[in-house]
Design brief:
This protein has 206 residues and is an all-alpha fold. The protein has two domains: 84 residues, Alpha Horseshoe (Serine Threonine Protein Phosphatase 5, Tetratricopeptide repeat); 86 residues, Serine Threonine Protein Phosphatase 5, Tetratricopeptide repeat. Helices cover 65% and strands 0% of the residues. It contains eleven helices and no strands. Helix 8 crosses helix 9. The longest helix has 13 residues.
Length: 206
């Protein structure tokens, strides 16, 4: 059984995509919602320069949410919003460039936009930057920066960062092993429903 648990204790290596509070999330099952009208309204607001609408429209195109998936339009609207300082757009745009998702992969552009977001203290971007330093694909591995950015995000309550930070201390590979700190951050993540954090706490109690 312990082997099974250990197999589940893996780093969350996927990046955090910032989401919007889309109006139709609240009324997904309502037949009265006119999705075309919502998109048209969002687009009109975006074209008038409203940054949150620009971000939301970019997200619709990125996810293919009630529109045909279109990465170029997603990039276009994310960038419109990002240059106005929208941290969610800056974060998501950076991931498009880091991952080469629908656009040409460009680590420099990814680093530029993620730094814009972390400079504003955006927790998801802090987590993503920590992952980039951990994975070492787009940025050079840097253990100190991994822990630094994961902790900044974790301290703001972002549960994937809390779990990953707990696992970093639990494993003791890039920092000295510290089960007390592992338990501290695992409890934080578990309190938010993180299943793997609950498994870690179970192992730490043995």
């Amino acid at each position: 059984m312990k082997i099974y648990y250990l197999l589940l204790l893996i780093l969350i290596s996927h990046s955090g995509i910032a989401q919007s509070t889309s109006i139709w999330i609240q009324f997904e099952n309502s037949p009265k919602i006119n999705y075309k009208k919502i998109i048209a309204s969002t687009k009109k607001s975006a074209e008038q320069g409203e940054p949150e609408s620009q971000f939301q429209l970019g997200l619709y195109y990125f996810n293919g949410e009630k529109v045909v998936k279109d990465y170029l339009k997603a990039e276009f609207w994310y960038k419109k919003s990002a240059v106005q300082g929208n941290v969610k757009a800056q974060n998501n745009l950076s991931l498009m460039y880091f991952n080469g998702e629908g656009v040409e992969k460009n680590s420099s552009n990814g680093f530029y936009w993620i730094n814009k977001a972390v400079d504003q203290g955006f927790d998801i971007a802090q987590y993503n930057l920590g992952l980039e330093y951990l994975n070492g694909e787009n940025l050079q591995n840097d253990s100190k920066k991994v822990v630094n950015w994961m902790q900044k995000s974790a301290e703001q309550g972002y549960s994937p960062a809390q779990y990953n930070l707990a696992l970093i201390y639990y494993r003791g590979k890039i920092v000295p092993k510290d089960l007390e700190k592992a338990a501290f951050w695992a409890r934080k993540a578990a309190a938010k429903g993180d299943y793997q954090a609950k498994i870690m706490l179970h192992l730490l109690r043995k």
